[in-house]
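Limitations
The structure tokens in this dataset are predictions for the assembled complex, not deposited experimental models. Users should treat interface geometry with appropriate caution, especially where small molecules or nucleic acid strands are included. An illustrative entry is reproduced here so readers can see what is and is not provided.
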Amino acid sequence: MKIAVVGLGRAGLPLAAVIADSGFEVIGIDVDAQKCELINKGVNPIPEEIGLDELLTKHGGKSLNATPRYEDASDCSMFIVIVPLFVDEDHNPDFSVLETALRAVGRILKKGDIVVLETTVPPRTTETRIKKWLEEESGLTFGEFLVAHSPERIMTGYSISRLKEFPKIIGGLDEESGKRAFEIYKKFVPNIHRVSSARVAEFIKLIEGCYRDVNIALANELFKIAGELGINFYEAREWANHEYCDIHLPSTGVGGHCIPLYPWFLIKELERMGKFGHARLLRTSREINDEMAEYWAEKIVLECLKVNKPLHEVKICVRGITYREGVKQLYESRNLVVAKRLMEKGLKVYVYDELVSEDEIEDMGLRFCKPEHADIVFDSFRLTTRIK
Ligand SMILES: NC(=O)c1ccc[n+]([C@@H]2O[C@H](COP(=O)([O-])OP(=O)(O)OC[C@H]3O[C@@H](n4cnc5c(N)ncnc54)[C@H](O)[C@@H]3O)[C@@H](O)[C@H]2O)c1
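Predicted assembly:
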């Protein structure tokens, strides 16, 4: 059986490589032709992904062939779609990339094929939009082709081991879809579990993100309260946590393209249903986490006042601008927002990050400096400030 993976990004490429490594012939489809060329030469475009180098050397251009042309996958019988879904400024999902990809799959879909959506989506997307786009483009009726949802649960950097070990879930639009998708997936994802529907599968992924966001908001709030009360939060947290209590770590907020987005999928859906109050905690948590950048910017200003220089001459270095330590990703980075908030206050702000070069920093319109050349350094991953 030949399997197509649509979208060879940080989530799709490791999955395509793992499927190829399980003995399947895989066609990877990505609109980025250059990336496809690299993959076919066995070159890994995501170097921080542990284990991907080896898999691409082994399968790139052999059992894993990448192409920008959907028609090259017309003899595949399973299509796994894992392209991004963004949100607009009002936090409403923007389905355009997903629609383009699904409609393109629809145009090569045949009777008996199965489509599995892995992109994290708002509830009921699989049973409404996905089914409709596929039916409209293929001229087939659902039932002649099958549809399931299996949300990607990887963590960039550890995707290969996650796919091999972490529990993955899958749910079909109907009994037959769920059964067929599960039977195929278990050949390349050993820890796969079938749930009762695609809607449940969608929800599982969203609530996992909400749990993280709400708990980080709680940690951030408790951290601020501890500060006001003159209490060392970390000492208190160490002794508060036990089997039934897991207070998270405070932060500058929540970044990346997953956790800060997913609560909005539920908040907005509930708002549309006129049930605003049901998602109050999710909305408040989002707000608390987003406000942390300003909280830290204000704290840094107070530290700057301790430097023996007029405030506007103090050279501030924000160390760490990626959204997470060790991952070269700036999407929704709250550390970057801390730097921007300080700049908006008219201060002399520079940034430094082990993973981002001086040129890349300057291309973003920011100023680079090594921490040792600044008057004050804010380490955004450790939440510490150091005065020279
Ligand atoms: N990266 C993660 O850590 C992670 C974790 C969990 C879930 N996810 C899910 O995976 C989805 C994809 O995320 P990602 O990190 O892989 O994104 P990404 O930006 O790294 O990659 C997306 C890829 O899709 C390609 N693409 C865009 N439009 C296309 C189209 N019409 N046809 C074919 N290819 C197209 C892009 O060229 C790119 O290579 C997310 O929306 C999320 O739901 C990602």
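Some entries come with short summary sentences. For this one: Residues 2-196 form a domain with the Rossmann fold fold (CATH 3.40.50.720).
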